[in-house]
Amino acid sequence: MELPVFGAGIIFNFTEGFVMSNYSELFSKSIDNPEEFWAEAAEGISWYKKWDKVLDDDNPPFYRWFSGAELNTCYNAVDRHVENGLGDKAAIIYDSPVTDTIYKLTYNELLRKVSSFAGVLKAQGVSKGDTVIIYMPMIPEAAVAMLACARLGAVHSVVFGGFAAHELAIRIDHAQPKVIVTASGAIEGKKTLAYKPLVDKAFDSADHKPEKCIVFQRPFVTAELQEGRDLDWQQEMNKSEAADCVPVAATDPLYILYTSGTTGMPKGVMRDNGGHAVALHWSMKNIYNIDTKDVFWSASDVGWVVGHSYIVYGPLLKGCTTVFYEGKPIGTPDPGAFWRVISEHGVKTLFTAPTAFRAIKKEDPNGAFCKKYDLSSFEALYLAGERLDPDTYHWACDLLKCPVIDHWWQTETGWAIVANCRGIEEFPVKPGSPTKAVPGYDVHIVDEHGKELGPNQEGNVVIKLPLPPGTLVSLWRDEKKFVKSYMSAFKGYYETSDGGFIDEDGYVYVMGRMDDVINIAGHRLSTGAMEEVIANHPDVAECAVIGTHDKLKGEKPIGFIILKAGVQRDFEEVKQELAQMVRDQIGPIACYRESILAHRLPKTRSGKILRGTMRAIANGKEYRMPSTIDDPTILDEITQVLSTMGLPE
Ligand code: COA
Ligand code: AMP
Q: Which residue's alpha carbon is at the smallest distance from atom 3 of ligand 2?
């Protein structure tokens, strides 16, 4: 039960009387006086030149933080820790059950590797403002490549290894990289995957041709190198001349991270250097309660925003130790994998997606594996990436007997919007809610006309502008799309595209996406992109893909397929072909397997497919009969088909 609040920052405590509440005080300051708040937070970062303005709001909705300032993100994440005497401390612990390897990289060693690889990139003509695509598995070289780009002021774009060649090619054409950095392959669970053939295929199909491809050869799979274009990572490192940090403007881009939108063309979320460094550094203590001496583990992948922010940049900016885990929560080798890593490396905080816990729970419901390990270093579990269902929350609490913190964020924001900020003040948890807005985020709920809704009323979750530092500054080479996608629907607010409500105590509840983005095992995917692939099948006339509930992965895609008139094929065969097409063109992580033969789709009188209504039916939610529907009887048909499939689970 939360204590009663008496005005900004003051709470009544029954033993101490009236005291200041850290959270309310800090939150109010961040909203009422953001410039002072973030200027103080910016003291945690080393600058070559301080800012002229903390917040440049001359051109809304393009807000700029720390304009006029200069810094280097790599310097802040690596060099300064060495200069401050932390050179011998572990920066990265690489733990790879799939290759049976564990080693540590100290800050000294990381500095040597990063400055050498920056030299390799520089020798290939990469300089400030150039783009570099990184397509790598979970190995420390991925972080080395990211930091080397940051060192030179080049802009990296990491592409998740589970994306197919076609998706990589889309990103190559949009980001126009000078160089691609990749590895010969990965081990995914028990499968050995060769990355280079995918990269070669992407090179062939992309219109833009990067000048060089640098390949890190792994012992279990050797990549063939193309004379004149491909370079061997190690050979180049052996002859490299270390490169120094290049000062960049705080407002210069650090990276582009493509994320799924509602169409086949992903959005290139653009992050700057200054705001990003300040916000992530601040978040490590205030949200995660992490100090320099601690070991922080984010069990995600460098290809996702969680990997960017909390495997690489956040922990390294803080100067603590980060774990690079190349494995799965189960099967590598068993559901005790996470507990082994925690106990072996003295992990204080683990951050992962609820799916990982559902997978562990499925294989080890009584937590027998957990009991085998000494988890005395472990302090708290943080979960994000999808809604934390109360069942998983309670199971994790019972198992670990430590705080289990749900927190909500998006690729676009780069760090948490709503969280129980343990480093500031820990609130009692209400299962199903990630707790309260993080300082910097002015979260509101509005209806479709932008009218503010009261406590417990469900609507669109929006954030009042300006967004805090570290959030997206625009979309790469597409300012118009940035404004249209996020800033147009509700004037003066950022549209999150999530639906939810805020209760009478200020606890935010995020209920799910209101658009065609779905979340499969914490991976963000676009049903629109899947529809684009399916529509290319020669027998398909029309289709609609929606996300339906899945016990393990949160959501899974299902396609409603209308075949062209006269097509007389066995639908099972078509179904297999569609699954293969999505796998080949988007990637295995799309997990597209299920297609349903349909004869018609629910549409408005103007012909728009009512995907929202289909989603509601599939997930057993109440829906209002759309007034524009051309034939309401079709909704009964859809309900019937889905109920024969046993949905929702
Ligand atoms: N490179 C290539 N392929 C990949 C890949 C990668 N980096 N990551 C996943 N894949 C493949 C998988 O091998 C699988 O292929 P398959 O269809 O041939 O079996 C497919 O993509 C689906 O992967 P995934 O959804 O991860 O399913 P899974 O059954 O292999 O594992 C979980 C299930 C729950 C264990 C796994 O999804 C997991 O650990 N989730 C945690 C979520 C997470 O870390 N999210 C990141 C955001 S915080
Ligand atoms: P991504 O951009 O991949 O991080 O995915 C962002 C989306 O994941 C959000 O818009 C939400 O729909 C969902 N999401 C992430 N974290 C949470 C959470 N803690 N609770 C509910 N939904 C979440």
A: 524
Report the C-alpha gap between 519 and 288 in whole angstroms: 24
Residue nearest to ligand 2 atom 21, measured at CA: 387
Question: Residue 588 CA: which ligand 1 atom is closest?
Answer: 21
The CA dihedral of 273, 277, 280, 281, to the nearest 10 degrees, is 180
Q: Retrieve residue 455's tokens.
A: 């406590």
CATH of segment(s) 523-643? 3.30.300.30
The two structure tokens encoding residue 581: 């097409």
Please compute, for residue 421, the number of CA atoms within 13 A of its CA located in the half-sphere on the CB side. Answer: 25
CA angle 169, 170, 176 (to 5 degrees): 80
Q: Which atom of ligand 1 is nearest to the CA of 385?
A: 48
Determine if ligand 1 sits within 6 Å of the CB of residue 138: no
What is the end-to-end Cα distance of the chain in Å, rounded?
33
With a 6 Å cutoff on the Cβ, whether 145 touches ligand 2 is no
- Look at residue 503 in the predicted model and tell me its pLDDT: 97
- With 0-12 CB in 10 A as exposed, 13-18 as middle and 19+ as buried, what is 639? middle
* pLDDT tens readout for residues 17-47: 444 459 999 999 999 999 999 999 999 999 9
Q: Taking the complete model, does pTM exceed 0.90, yes or no?
A: yes
For a mutational test of ligand 2's pocket, the pick from 260, 306, 386, i.e. the residue with the most ligand atoms closer than 8 A to its C-beta, is 386
Extract the tokens encoding 79: 């060099």
For residue 422, how far is the Cα from the chain centroid?
A: 21
Ligand 2 lined by 407 (C-beta under 6 Å):
yes
Tell me what percent of the chain is helix, strand and coil, each rounded to the nearest 5. 30, 25, 40
State pLDDT tens for residues 602-630: 888 878 888 888 888 887 777 777 777 77
Identify the CA nearest to 19 among candidates 32, 6, 1, 33: 6
